[in-house]
Protein backbone atom coordinates (compact mmCIF):
# COMPACT_ATOMS: atom_id res chain seq x y z
CA UNK A 1 0.00 0.00 0.00
CA UNK A 2 2.78 2.43 0.86
CA UNK A 3 4.49 1.95 -2.48
CA UNK A 4 1.24 2.55 -4.33
CA UNK A 5 0.71 5.85 -2.56
CA UNK A 6 4.27 6.98 -3.23
CA UNK A 7 3.99 6.04 -6.91
CA UNK A 8 0.79 8.01 -7.39
CA UNK A 9 1.43 10.85 -9.81
CA UNK A 10 -0.15 14.26 -10.15
CA UNK A 11 -0.91 14.53 -13.86
CA UNK A 12 -2.19 18.07 -13.42
CA UNK A 13 -5.29 19.85 -14.64
CA UNK A 14 -6.00 22.76 -16.94
CA UNK A 15 -6.90 26.18 -15.54
CA UNK A 16 -10.23 27.11 -17.14
CA UNK A 17 -9.20 30.79 -17.39
CA UNK A 18 -5.64 30.64 -18.73
CA UNK A 19 -5.80 27.22 -20.38
CA UNK A 20 -2.45 26.34 -18.80
CA UNK A 21 -1.89 22.83 -17.46
CA UNK A 22 -0.60 22.95 -13.90
CA UNK A 23 -0.08 20.62 -10.98
CA UNK A 24 -3.17 20.17 -8.81
CA UNK A 25 -1.07 21.50 -5.95
CA UNK A 26 -1.26 24.92 -7.66
CA UNK A 27 -4.97 24.82 -8.46
CA UNK A 28 -8.32 25.08 -6.71
CA UNK A 29 -11.12 22.73 -7.74
CA UNK A 30 -14.72 23.89 -8.13
CA UNK A 31 -17.86 21.92 -8.94
CA UNK A 32 -21.39 22.86 -9.93
CA UNK A 33 -23.76 22.12 -7.06
CA UNK A 34 -27.23 20.56 -7.48
CA UNK A 35 -28.73 24.07 -7.52
CA UNK A 36 -26.38 25.23 -10.27
CA UNK A 37 -24.18 27.26 -7.91
CA UNK A 38 -20.38 27.11 -8.15
CA UNK A 39 -18.93 25.46 -5.04
CA UNK A 40 -15.23 25.43 -4.04
CA UNK A 41 -14.03 21.87 -3.43
CA UNK A 42 -10.90 22.41 -1.35
CA UNK A 43 -10.55 18.75 -0.36
CA UNK A 44 -11.16 17.66 -3.99
CA UNK A 45 -13.74 15.06 -2.99
CA UNK A 46 -17.08 16.41 -4.16
CA UNK A 47 -18.84 14.55 -6.99
CA UNK A 48 -19.14 16.10 -10.40
CA UNK A 49 -16.82 17.39 -13.08
CA UNK A 50 -14.02 19.49 -11.67
CA UNK A 51 -13.50 23.06 -12.86
CA UNK A 52 -9.97 24.12 -11.98
CA UNK A 53 -8.47 27.57 -11.47
CA UNK A 54 -4.99 28.66 -10.45
CA UNK A 55 -4.81 29.40 -6.73
CA UNK A 56 -4.75 33.16 -7.15
CA UNK A 57 -7.25 35.77 -6.00
CA UNK A 58 -6.76 37.73 -9.22
CA UNK A 59 -7.39 34.64 -11.36
CA UNK A 60 -10.55 33.67 -9.47
CA UNK A 61 -11.89 37.24 -9.54
CA UNK A 62 -11.24 37.47 -13.29
CA UNK A 63 -12.88 34.09 -13.86
CA UNK A 64 -15.97 35.34 -12.03
CA UNK A 65 -16.05 38.61 -13.96
CA UNK A 66 -15.77 36.80 -17.31
CA UNK A 67 -18.04 33.94 -16.18
CA UNK A 68 -15.72 31.30 -17.59
CA UNK A 69 -17.42 28.80 -15.27
CA UNK A 70 -20.48 28.63 -17.54
CA UNK A 71 -18.36 27.97 -20.61
CA UNK A 72 -16.33 25.28 -18.83
CA UNK A 73 -19.47 23.68 -17.38
CA UNK A 74 -21.23 23.82 -20.76
CA UNK A 75 -24.26 25.48 -19.24
CA UNK A 76 -25.35 28.46 -17.19
CA UNK A 77 -24.19 28.46 -13.57
CA UNK A 78 -24.57 30.84 -10.64
CA UNK A 79 -21.46 32.41 -9.16
CA UNK A 80 -21.86 33.36 -5.49
CA UNK A 81 -20.74 36.80 -4.37
CA UNK A 82 -17.32 36.93 -2.76
CA UNK A 83 -16.16 33.62 -4.19
CA UNK A 84 -12.45 34.36 -3.72
CA UNK A 85 -13.11 35.36 -0.09
CA UNK A 86 -14.91 32.06 0.40
CA UNK A 87 -12.00 30.12 -1.08
CA UNK A 88 -9.53 31.94 1.17
CA UNK A 89 -11.63 31.14 4.24
CA UNK A 90 -11.92 27.46 3.31
CA UNK A 91 -8.19 27.15 2.62
CA UNK A 92 -7.45 28.73 5.99
CA UNK A 93 -9.77 26.23 7.69
CA UNK A 94 -8.19 23.36 5.77
CA UNK A 95 -4.66 24.33 6.83
CA UNK A 96 -5.64 24.61 10.48
CA UNK A 97 -7.48 21.29 10.28
CA UNK A 98 -4.32 19.59 8.97
CA UNK A 99 -2.30 21.29 11.71
CA UNK A 100 -4.68 19.94 14.36
CA UNK A 101 -4.62 16.45 12.87
CA UNK A 102 -0.82 16.48 12.92
CA UNK A 103 -0.88 17.30 16.60
CA UNK A 104 -3.34 14.52 17.41
CA UNK A 105 -1.17 12.09 15.47
CA UNK A 106 1.89 13.09 17.49
CA UNK A 107 3.48 14.72 14.42
CA UNK A 108 3.50 18.31 15.72
CA UNK A 109 5.47 19.99 18.50
CA UNK A 110 4.62 23.48 19.77
CA UNK A 111 6.50 26.10 21.77
CA UNK A 112 9.84 27.76 21.03
CA UNK A 113 12.04 25.60 23.28
CA UNK A 114 10.34 22.37 22.21
CA UNK A 115 10.70 23.31 18.56
CA UNK A 116 14.36 24.11 19.04
CA UNK A 117 14.98 20.77 20.74
CA UNK A 118 13.01 18.93 18.05
CA UNK A 119 15.04 20.47 15.24
CA UNK A 120 18.25 19.24 16.83
CA UNK A 121 17.05 15.64 17.10
CA UNK A 122 14.36 14.97 14.48
CA UNK A 123 13.60 15.59 10.80
CA UNK A 124 11.18 18.46 10.32
CA UNK A 125 8.85 18.90 7.36
CA UNK A 126 7.62 22.43 7.97
CA UNK A 127 8.09 25.19 10.53
CA UNK A 128 5.17 27.36 11.63
CA UNK A 129 5.44 30.84 13.12
CA UNK A 130 2.51 33.06 14.10
CA UNK A 131 2.33 36.18 11.96
CA UNK A 132 1.65 38.30 15.03
CA UNK A 133 4.59 36.91 17.00
CA UNK A 134 7.89 38.71 17.54
CA UNK A 135 9.91 39.05 14.34
CA UNK A 136 13.12 38.05 16.10
CA UNK A 137 11.47 34.80 17.23
CA UNK A 138 10.65 33.91 13.62
CA UNK A 139 14.18 34.75 12.57
CA UNK A 140 15.69 32.58 15.30
CA UNK A 141 13.49 29.60 14.43
CA UNK A 142 14.27 29.94 10.72
CA UNK A 143 17.98 30.21 11.44
CA UNK A 144 17.93 26.87 13.26
CA UNK A 145 16.76 25.10 10.10
CA UNK A 146 17.05 27.45 7.10
CA UNK A 147 16.39 24.60 4.67
CA UNK A 148 12.95 23.86 6.17
CA UNK A 149 9.97 25.77 4.68
CA UNK A 150 8.35 28.30 7.01
CA UNK A 151 4.59 28.93 7.07
CA UNK A 152 3.53 32.21 8.67
CA UNK A 153 -0.01 32.71 7.39
CA UNK A 154 -1.77 32.41 10.76
CA UNK A 155 -2.11 34.33 13.99
CA UNK A 156 -1.13 32.89 17.34
CA UNK A 157 -4.81 32.71 18.24
CA UNK A 158 -5.67 30.68 15.15
CA UNK A 159 -2.81 28.24 15.73
CA UNK A 160 -3.71 27.88 19.39
CA UNK A 161 -7.40 27.29 18.69
CA UNK A 162 -6.51 24.50 16.24
CA UNK A 163 -4.91 22.50 19.06
CA UNK A 164 -7.07 23.57 22.00
CA UNK A 165 -4.85 26.34 23.36
CA UNK A 166 -5.37 30.06 23.73
CA UNK A 167 -2.31 30.89 21.67
CA UNK A 168 0.67 29.28 19.95
CA UNK A 169 3.55 31.16 18.32
CA UNK A 170 6.03 28.50 17.18
CA UNK A 171 5.52 24.94 15.99
CA UNK A 172 7.06 22.26 13.82
CA UNK A 173 5.39 19.44 11.88
CA UNK A 174 7.38 16.27 11.27
CA UNK A 175 8.44 15.33 7.77
CA UNK A 176 5.69 13.30 6.11
CA UNK A 177 2.15 13.50 4.80
CA UNK A 178 0.85 16.15 7.18
CA UNK A 179 3.74 18.49 6.41
CA UNK A 180 3.38 17.99 2.66
CA UNK A 181 -0.37 18.60 2.75
CA UNK A 182 0.03 21.68 4.93
CA UNK A 183 2.60 23.18 2.57
CA UNK A 184 0.39 22.62 -0.48
CA UNK A 185 -2.66 24.24 1.11
CA UNK A 186 -0.64 27.08 2.68
CA UNK A 187 0.88 27.96 -0.68
CA UNK A 188 -2.62 28.13 -2.16
CA UNK A 189 -3.73 30.31 0.74
CA UNK A 190 -0.89 32.76 0.08
CA UNK A 191 -2.23 33.20 -3.45
CA UNK A 192 -5.70 34.02 -2.12
CA UNK A 193 -4.72 36.45 0.61
CA UNK A 194 -5.58 40.08 -0.02
CA UNK A 195 -2.31 41.27 1.45
CA UNK A 196 1.05 40.32 0.01
CA UNK A 197 1.55 36.95 1.66
CA UNK A 198 4.71 35.29 2.92
CA UNK A 199 6.52 32.71 0.88
CA UNK A 200 6.15 29.23 2.24
Account of the 3D structure:
The structure is a single chain. By secondary structure, the chain is of the alpha+beta class. The chain folds into two domains: 2-81, Hypothetical Cytosolic Protein, Chain: A; 88-192, Ribosomal protein L30/S12 (60s Ribosomal Protein L30, Chain: A, 2-Layer Sandwich). The protein contains eight helices and nine strands. The strands form three sheets. A four-stranded mixed sheet has the order 6-9-7-8, sandwiched between helices. β7 (124-129), α6 (135-144) and β8 (150-151) form a beta-alpha-beta unit. α2 packs across α4 (83-104) and α4 (83-104) packs antiparallel against α8. The two termini are 30 Å apart. Mean pLDDT is 91; it is low at 1-7 and 196-200.
SSE pattern, N- to C-terminal: HEEEEEHHHEHEHEHEH
Main pleated-sheet profile: 4 strands, mixed
Q: What's the CATH class of the largest domain, please?
A: Alpha Beta
Strand order of the largest sheet: 6-9-7-8
Q: Which parts are unreliable, with pLDDT below 50 for 5 consecutive residues or more?
A: 1-7, 196-200
At CATH level 2, the architecture of the largest domain is: 2-Layer Sandwich
Count of helical stretches: 8
The coarse silhouette is: elongated
The figure for the number of domains is 2
Query: Please, what is the average pLDDT?
Result: 91
Percent helix = 40-55%
Short description:
With 200 residues, the protein is of the alpha+beta class. It has 8 helices and 9 strands.
